[in-house]
Structure formats: C-alpha cells, structure tokens
# Entry
Amino acid sequence: MIIKKIVKYFTAPVQVILINLILKQKKGVFCFFFNLYSFILNKKTKIYFKDNFYFVKNFNIRFSEKKVGIFNYMDGINNRISYLRKSYLISELNFQEDDIIIDCGAQNGDFYLCFNKKIMYYGIEPSPITFSNLQHNVKNQNLINKAAWKTAEKNINFYLKDDFSDSSLIKINDFTNIIPVQTITLDGVIDQIICKIADVNNKKVKLIKIDVEGAEPEVLLGLSKNLINVDYITVDCSFERGVEKASTLAECANYLLKNNFKIINFSAQRTAILFKNNSY
# Structure
C-alpha cells in the first residue's frame, strides 16, 4: 500500500529527474539506486556490479552502459523480449528448431532471447566492448566481431557511441571515439553458412534483422546474390542516419521491393518494416 502511494506521485517529469540522478552514480552506487528505484516501482529487476561490468541478477546478462541497464532491463527480461518481438514485428512468425537467424547490430544479444527454439544464430557486432558482452550473453552460437556493410574491407571508420548502443559506420553527432573495424557483407555471411550445410535447398535463412544506426541501405547493398536464400528481413529504419538523423525507410523499401520482396508489416513505434520473400 505504501509503495502504491509513492508510485502515485511518480509523474513522468519526476521519473526523468530520478533517472538522471541515478545515471550520475557509478558502479555499486548506481546498482543500489537502480535496485531501489526498481523496488519502488515494483519492477523486481536487480543488478550488480562485478569486474567492471553490470549484470542482471538471476539472468546473468552482462552490460556496460548505465543507460542500457535503465532503459532495456529495468522492466525485466520478459518485458524486454516482448518489446523486441513486437517492435521488430516477428511475433506472428513461426520459428522452427535450427532456423537460421542473422542479427546485424546484435549489441548485447537481447534479440537472441526472442527465440524459444534451438535456432542457429549469427550475431554481427563491431563495437569491441559491446561484442565482449555479446560473447558473455550468447553461448555456443556464431558471433562475428565485424560490421555489416556493402563491401568487405579491412579498415573503415566506426564512430563509437556505446552509451546507448548508437555507434555507426555513418558519421554521427557526439561520438566518443573513432576506431577502425573490419566489415563483412551479408552475402559473405550467407556464403559461409551455405558452405557448412549439406542440404542447401532445405536450409534457407529464416530471418535477417538489420538495425545498424542508419547504415541499413549499405548493409542491404551487400546482400544481392543471396537474397533468394532469405525468407524474411526486418529493418529498423528509424531517424538515426548521420548528423542529419534521417530515416532510411525509402532506400530500404525501394531496394527490397525491387528485389522480389513485399512489405507484410510496419511499426510506426520504431519505424520498422518486415519484408517477406515473394518466392516462398
């Protein structure tokens, strides 16, 4: 009863103030106030700090940035999964064991949690620290510490902004560092997958998720000869491209519609589109 009375006064502006205060704290102090705030709001999510990383208690999910903890995990892992399935428009798709899923912009690996079946997961994440979290969170799968792009190159500028997973190959505002990364094409990834599978005709890529902070058109340009081998593609076309923060909706839709895909769902909440291959 007391908690409900307290929550009653937690209006949106008050919550913003409290969250900003919590984000100013460091390490164990941040965890203490995170857990207290979670308790007051009856969220029941707890985190702890160990070896310079944060962990979601009882799930052993590791993350590095405080904003990621607040906005991705405060409401609990199940709510996080529900949000991802809805925002990437995959809730109505049927997945089977051994389906191949390619995750471009895998971040900490949360998208992997959306699948109850034993899938074949390929996570592509270029940020070094974020990739180390991905390795911790996703076991016994195929993880690639490169950036998806239109060509395979040895060194290309990557603009780091890891505080809320906003790093990009397209120059952005307020980046914290520029590092060289290797790039890989989706055609190259699928070629590697096909080489591992004997019965190619029965092993298409079930789904590709592309959420690469504005570089979605370039990633799609790196997928041409193997488009025929993909069932579904979900693309985040949000207003995140470059310093202008442009949407990539038109470029992505035009490319896939010209290449025998159709739009079967759209999310205004995330500006995401789900495409289906007309061949299947």
Q: What stands out?
A: The CA atoms of residues 73 and 80 lie 7 Å apart. The longest strand covers residues 230-236. The chain has nine helices and 14 strands.
